[in-house]
Design brief:
With 77 residues, this protein is mainly alpha-helical. The chain has a domain of 35 residues. The chain has 3 helices and 2 strands, in the order ββααα. Strands 1-2 form a two-stranded antiparallel sheet. β1 and β2 form a beta hairpin. The longest helix has 23 residues. The chain starts with 5 loop residues before the first strand and ends with a helix.
């Protein structure tokens, strides 16, 4: 098994093939950039709009009385 490595900035990449090295470098740069963007962006959740509110209301959790009410109204579960 070959042990040829390429060292870039103190990081060992287990290949000397320029394509493999370029892919590793690009993935590393993308990881650093996305981490910086995530760190510097404003966190939190966006304010809900009317459509989101309707979705939340229509998908409320089932309650104990729902099953009895559904049976009384003839709805199947």
């Amino acid at each position: 098994m070959p042990t040829d490595t390429t060292s870039i900035g103190g990081f060992e990449i287990p290949s000397t093939d320029p394509t493999v090295v370029a892919v590793h470098v690009l993935i590393g740069v993308a990881a650093v950039v996305s981490g910086a963007v995530a760190m510097l962006s404003k966190g939190g959740r966006p304010a809900p709009n009317r459509r989101d509110l309707l979705l939340l209301v229509s998908r409320r959790p089932r309650r104990d009385g729902d099953r009895a009410r559904d049976r009384a109204l003839g709805r199947g579960l």
